[in-house]
Specification:
It holds the Pfam family MFS_1. This is Major facilitator superfamily (MFS) profile domain-containing protein. GO terms for molecular function: transmembrane transporter activity. Keywords: Membrane, Transmembrane, Transmembrane helix. The protein has 600 residues and is mainly α. The chain folds into 3 domains: 230 residues, MFS general substrate transporter like domains (Growth Hormone, Chain: A, Up-down Bundle); 223 residues, MFS general substrate transporter like domains (Growth Hormone, Chain: A, Up-down Bundle), CATH 1.20.1250; 37 residues, no CATH class. 67% of the residues lie in helices and 0% in strands. It is built from 26 helices and no strands. Helix 5 crosses helix 16 and helix 8 packs antiparallel against helix 13.
Length: 600
């Protein structure tokens, strides 16, 4: 191919006019336009690059809500790099341990800790508030749950404004301050505000922000790691700290020093979490997910990038789904419009509401099932009930810890919900109709098993029903609804106690609701894909109508009438005129030819 002459590279305006036949005046205009176009292109390029820097997403997994950092990637910390490099094990295990430690920190705001000091708190506060009753204090705690439950949905928005380390540290410090303030509460209003603050910064912010880190460090083994974390969290939050609180709290105002000690003592795990938690995940620190090699991690990152490039408008799955998990990419909005979500959610809410109300009122509930101590042995009865309440909490915690990994061994996850309903209804009915110490122990084991099977922070059921693309937001929406209904159940049990002097009415009602829900779940709860397949195979209304007109499908009386009509026609067909006989042709089977057979 002939090369252009070198003199063409340095043509003057006159040379351009001679070479291309352009007038000399137009050459200057073309040069000015070219210069302006070049400046516009450079300016647009700069603006586009700035926009790209502002909307970059820090997470290696898309589909878990809004971008966690809309102002761009934060620089990697040397401290975090040193921590990860000096750690002898995969740092994902450290993050998992921090999540379990978070369950210990927020335990003072949960029913299993509040129930330990509830009677002592009520007796102390009634000295200055004579009209404060069990129903009143239950109303305050339930109101705190109702007010704080929507905050669980906002932790991703908070992570968009501040770093995870900052959010966890501030939430933990505020929670410790709330424990100190609770020790100084003197009236219903202060109690409501402090409990609300605890629910906001503890279960509402601290724990979800920590629990979300498992997505950035684990992929193939995330289900198993999450099950271990929830089991250890149940051991720490439901058993260890309530036992410490039970031994330090006593009659009168001893619950106040106990919460003061908690406020100071919990600073240690809060500062430990603030020191060890790191930003980003395994891929951000040149590590592989699940502890794989960095080369494998790079391959995962490249695969995620390729998928994002091919389908930028769709939220991608958090990980490659295993065979039992749905491949469908259901968003939160789509899940909220499906009956499977609400059937499963009502089951979650019912089970957790019953178990939380049982744990919250367990000491007062034992007065319905005491050993009928004589009146002169009130101290012996109180000590017996204290020991029995402690034993019940231990059984609930251990049963919950053992049953939490059940989702790993059941292929059809909807059976877990049915099992939980049967367990909790069996526990309540045993408690009502077998009011002995053995009955209480059996009931505690059954309720703890139901609580563990439907562990609120497990995504096994939601991933099975709706896939992994938006399972985290679906899970936290479920937790928010469950938290509100649990508070309502605590109030309902207290109201039943005040009106009927016993808990039997509310427990029988909840057992009936659980059994009815179990029946409905057996008939209707399934994966959305299965339900849609059934609907596609279901007969249309026209087919049902035609079948009814042929054999009287919906009515036995219609069948009898058709038999009588046929018998009458056989016996006395002659006297009847032809016009009086009923036309037996099916009205749907008309003589009009189908549309596709007509000439268009």
């Amino acid at each position: 191919m002939a090369q252009p002459d070198a003199s063409h590279a340095e043509l003057t305006a006159a040379g351009i006019s001679e070479e291309f036949g352009v007038q000399a005046g137009e050459v200057d205009k073309l040069q000015m336009k070219w210069s302006n176009w070049s400046e516009d292109i450079e300016e647009n390029k700069r603006l586009v690059l700035e926009d790209v820097d502002e909307v970059v997403e820090v997470t290696p997994f898309s589909g878990i809500g809004a971008s966690l950092n809309p102002v761009g990637l934060r620089p990697r910390s040397r401290t975090a790099d040193c921590l990860i490099a000096s750690c002898p094990v995969f740092y994902g295990w450290i993050m998992a341990a921090l999540v379990a430690l978070g369950a210990l920190i927020i335990s003072p705001a949960q029913v299993y800790s509040v129930g330990v000091v509830l009677d002592n708190m009520l007796g102390d506060l009634k000295k200055e508030n004579k009209y404060l009753s069990r129903l009143g204090i239950s109303t305050l705690y339930a109101s705190a749950h109702l007010i704080a439950s929507p905050v669980i949905l906002l932790h991703t928005g908070a992570l968009a404004m501040v770093s995870r380390k900052t959010l966890v540290t501030l939430s933990g410090l505020l929670f410790c301050v709330s424990c100190l303030l609770l020790a100084m509460a003197r009236g219903p209003l202060s109690l409501l505000l402090i409990w609300t603050l605890q629910q906001l910064v503890g279960p509402g912010m601290l724990y979800p922000a920590l629990e979300l880190t498992l997505l950035y460090w684990w992929k193939a083994r995330r289900d198993r790691v999450s099950a271990v974390v929830q089991s250890v969290g149940a051991l720490l939050g439901m058993l260890l700290l309530p036992m410490v609180l039970s031994f330090t709290a006593c009659e009168g105002e001893c619950w106040r020093p106990a919460y003061t000690s908690l406020g100071v003592g919990l600073l240690v795990p809060v500062l430990l979490i603030a020191l060890l938690v790191v930003e980003g995940g395994a891929l951000d620190h040149d590590l592989g997910l699940d502890g794989a090699s960095s080369a494998a991690g790079s391959m995962h990152a490249a695969a995620d990038t390729a998928l994002t490039d091919t389908a930028p408008s769709e939220s991608m799955a958090l990980e490659t789904p295993s065979p039992p998990v749905a491949d469908e990419r259901w968003s939160l909005h789509e899940a909220l419009t499906h009956t499977s979500f609400w059937l499963a959610q009502v089951t979650f809410s019912t089970v957790h509401a019953i178990v939380n109300a049982f744990i919250f009122h367990r000491k007062d509930l034992l007065t319905d099932y005491d050993e009928h101590f004589p009146d002169d042995q009130a101290d012996a009865r109180r000590d017996h009930n204290e020991r029995l309440a402690t034993n019940l909490l231990v059984l609930v915690a251990l049963s919950c810890m053992v049953c939490t990994p059940a989702g790993l061994f059941v292929r059809r996850k909807e059976k877990l919900l049915i099992l939980a309903l049967l367990l909790v209804s069996g526990g309540i009915l045993t408690l009502v109709h077998h009011p002995t110490s053995n009955g209480l122990y059996i009931s505690s084991v059954l309720m703890g098993g139901a609580f563990g099977v439907t562990n609120g922070y497990s995504t096994a059921v939601w991933e099975y029903l709706f896939g992994r693309s938006d399972a985290e937001r679906i899970k936290h929406t479920s937790i928010a609804i469950t938290s509100a209904t649990s508070g309502s159940a605590i109030w309902a049990f207290a109201f039943s106690r005040q009106e009927t002097k016993r808990y039997r009415a509310s427990m029988n009602a909840m057992a009936a609701v659980a059994l009815m829900l179990a029946t409905v779940d057996m008939l209707a709860l399934a994966k959305p894909e299965l339900l849609e397949a059934i609907v596609r195979r279901a007969p249309t209304w026209e087919q049902l109508l035609a079948r009814r007109q042929r054999v009287g499908y919906f009515s036995v009386s219609g069948q009898l009438a058709s038999i009588g009509d046929a018998f009458g026609r056989c016996v006395c067909s002659a006297p009847w005129s032809r016009t009086a006989r009923r036309n037996q042709a099916n009205p749907i089977e008309t003589e009009i030819p189908p549309l596709e057979n007509r000439a268009l």
